[in-house]
Every structure is written in C-alpha cells, then in structure tokens.
Amino acid sequence: GVQTCALPILNLKDQSVSDVYAPSSNLWIRIRDGFQMEPMNTPIEIEQVRWLSARPDYVHRSMARSSRYMFYIVQEVNARNMPTEIALLPFVESAFVTHAKSSAKAVGLWQFMPATGKDFRLTQNVFRDERRDVVQSTDAALDYLQRLHSQFGTWELALAAYNWGAGNIAKAQKRNLAAGLPTDYESLTLPKETRNYVPKLMAYRQIVLDPQAYGIILPELENHPYFVALDIDSDIDVAVAIKLAEIPEQEFQNLNPSFNKPVILSNANQQILLPFGHAEVFQENLKKYTKPLSSWAAVQVTKTESVDQCAKTLGVDAETLRQVNGIPKGMRIRSGSTVLVPKTSSRVGDISVAMAENASLNLDKSASAPK
Predict the structure, then answer these.
(1) Which of 45, 83, 124, 145 could form a disulfide with 36 if both were Cys (CB 3.0 to 4.6 A apart)?
(2) Which among 305, 359, 303 has a CA at the least distance from the CA of 331?
(3) Nearest to 89 by CA among 255, 176, 204
(4) Could you count the other beta carbons within 10 Å of the beta carbon of residue 147?
(5) CB neighbours of residue 105 within 10 Å
(6) Alpha helices in 165-191 (DSSP H)
(7) Is-contact 135 72, C-beta < 8 A?
(8) CA distances (Å), origin 110, targets 75, 138, 166, 258, 365
(9) 82/295 Cα distance (integer angstroms)
C-alpha cells in the first residue's frame, strides 16, 4: 500500500511547486515558501527583531538595494535545495552594499576575506576583485555554506562557522565534548558577534514572514531575473559599455562592482551584468559601434622607477599613469608590476590571458634624496 501512496504525493508536490511559482509574480512569496529553519525565539532573537523594527528606514534601504540581486540569489539557493533563509544572509553581512568593506578587509555582498576568496577561486588582482562580483561571489558563498553544512550537520552551525571560521567552531565543539556538554549551536560558547549572527538572520526571516507586524513595507520584488549576464568578446572600456547599454553609470556600477579599472578584459572570462531590458539594447548598439571599444593597454614594467621616470620610459603622461593605476604620490613602481596605459597604434590588441589573470601592482616608497 505504501508504494501506491507515495507516487501521487510526489506528483502533487511537483505540481504544487510549479503552480505556486509560475503565476506568482512575487518573489517574497517564493522566499517564504522556501524557509526551512526553525526560529529559536531566544531573547537575543527577539532583541534583534526589535532593533530592526525600530529602524524601518535602514531596513527599507537595504531591501531596496536587495531588489537587484535577490532573484538571482534565490534561484541559486533553490537550485541547491538550501533553505531560502540563506538568501537573506547578505542583509546581515553587507546590507546588500556591494562595495562594503569590513575592518577585517572582508569585501562584497557576502563579505569574503582575501584568503577565503582565494580558496574559492575568486580572483583578486589589479583588474578585478571577484569577491565583489555578484554572480561569482554568490556561487562561492553558497559552495562554502554547503561545505560547512556537510561538515557540521546543521544550518545554524554552518552559519556560525561562516561567521567565525570552521576551525573555531570545531574547537568549541571539542571543548563541549570534553566537558560532557551538547555540541549544537545554542550550547557552544561563542563570541558575541557569532552568538548574534544567526538571531540577526532569523530577525530578517521574521520581517519577511510578517512585515505588517513590524510596520515594514517590503519592496515589490518580481519573480523574474533582474539582470542578464553577457560574455565579453573583446576588451571594452567601462564608459563605452555604459554608453552602449544606455543605463546610468550608477546602475552599471551596482551590477558590476568587481571591476577595478576603466577597462573590462575579454581574456578574464568576465561577464557584464545588465538590467534585463538593456542587454538587447547593448547588443544592438554594439553591432553598430565603429569606434575602438577599448582605449587601454597593459604593460609590464621591467625596472623599478618613479612614476615620472616610468611614464617617460613608456611614453605616456605621468598624471594619467598615476591616476588610472591609483598610485599615491611619492611611490615607485616595482619591476614586474603591471600598469594600465592609454592604447597607442603600437599597442593594439586585447590584454593577454596571463596579464588578465596575474597582474599585480607593487609599489615601494621612493628613496629620499641623499642628505
């Protein structure tokens, strides 16, 4: 009897999923439907909900910012069968500010530290910092959280480890084991920030579940992609991309915060994200565009010299060299560094894969004049 019973239930489940999602034009409903975590209703959690509901403006601003990224994040979280609470984590990490940088040098929506970013193959070099890349950092963060979940067995512990480090959680568990205490999230001795971390996420969960109760109005979030990712076939200046896409510069920056330089490299496997309606506009305009797409070349410096000397050697304007490469006054460029220079007829072609992947800029203080 069990066998026959199982099938219709499965079908029902599949059916209800598509029925609920196909017509639902509201992403918040989809997020609520995917919640899997149990609220703990601890005093800390109640305190966090209170803190947020006392700051509706702050919540509204973060929510408005999230509208560009949330559909993509929810898609990815759903595809991995993770709880949709995880899609709310950037509220806690960065309030959905893509260029957020913590005192500990963590960067982006998901606040990756440089070393963790490297572990998850997020390139950090002269040209780009993929810890700020919306698509790449989301995929890396979800990979990381899944790894932590399979290591620790619960999402609460996985999240605590995301905040404090897996090694620290493992040690805290060992201490509890030695003392004959349970090793679940609520039983561990954690630093204050980590102790508050999951309750903060659960506070956002509460608000998304019942915004009216807290006097919060959720922004309209449509249940379809906000942006489209386009591959780049040849180097293109950021300014040209913005012009061809016909979007405000700020909107381009919001979707493409990982580019450090005024040129996007075709050899870096880079994509540009554009608002849904503007990808076609961009492609149409690109077809008709006859001027050079990129006005920058990359050069490797062969000897350590001052910006002025280097500019002379390369035949470029010293101020341009200093500005586009972000070199402070009084610094020398070390041999082996990659610098961006304006393209000339002798420097045509796209920036090479080797440079796109490994470019670094190393500076040292210029020797002071002899006494």
Answers:
(1) 83
(2) 305
(3) 204
(4) 16
(5) 12
(6) 166-178
(7) yes
(8) 16, 7, 16, 13, 34
(9) 44
For residue 57, what are the contacts with CB-CB under 8 A and spacing of at least 6? none
Q: Where are the alpha helices (DSSP H) in 54-154?
A: 56-66, 70-79, 89-94, 114-119, 134-152
Residue 325 and residue 262: Cα distance in Å, rounded?
A: 10
| CA-to-CA separations, 172 to 48, 113, 146, 186, 190, in angstroms, rounded | 24, 22, 20, 12, 8
**Please, which residues have CB within 8 angstroms of residue 285's CB and are 6 or more apart in sequence?**
243, 244, 245, 246
- Secondary structure (3-state) at 274: strand
Phi, psi dihedrals of residue 304, rounded to the nearest 5°: -75, 120
CA distance 273 to 43: 41
Residue 215, sorted as left (phi over 0), alpha (psi -120 to 50) or beta, turns out to be: left
Q: Residue 165: what residue type?
A: G
CB 120 within 8 A of CB 144: yes
Summarised one tens digit per residue, pLDDT across range 119-174 is: 999 999 999 999 999 999 999 999 999 999 999 999 999 999 999 999 999 999 99
Looking at residue 94, its amino acid is S
Q: Which residue in 38, 45, 85, 93 is the catalytic one?
A: 93
CB 110 within 8 A of CB 140: yes
* 93 flagged as catalytic: yes
**pLDDT digit string, tens, across residues 292-333:** 999 999 999 999 999 999 999 999 999 999 999 999 998 999
**pTM listed for this prediction:** 0.89
**What's the half-sphere exposure (Cβ side, CA atoms, 13 Å) at 94?**
25
Amino acid at 90: P
Res. 336: pLDDT tops 60: yes
CA contacts within 13 A on the Cβ side of 72? 23
Report d(CA 154, CA 151) in Å as an integer. Answer: 9
Residues 282/238, Cβ–Cβ less than 8 Å = no
The two tokens of residue 153 are 């067995």
3-class SS of residue 35: coil
User: Which segments within the chain are labelled E, that is strand?
Assistant: 227-231, 236-237, 263-264, 271-275, 296-300, 305-306, 331-333, 338-342, 363-365
- Residues 6 or more apart whose CB falls under 8 angstroms from that of 89 comprise 110, 141, 159, 162, 201
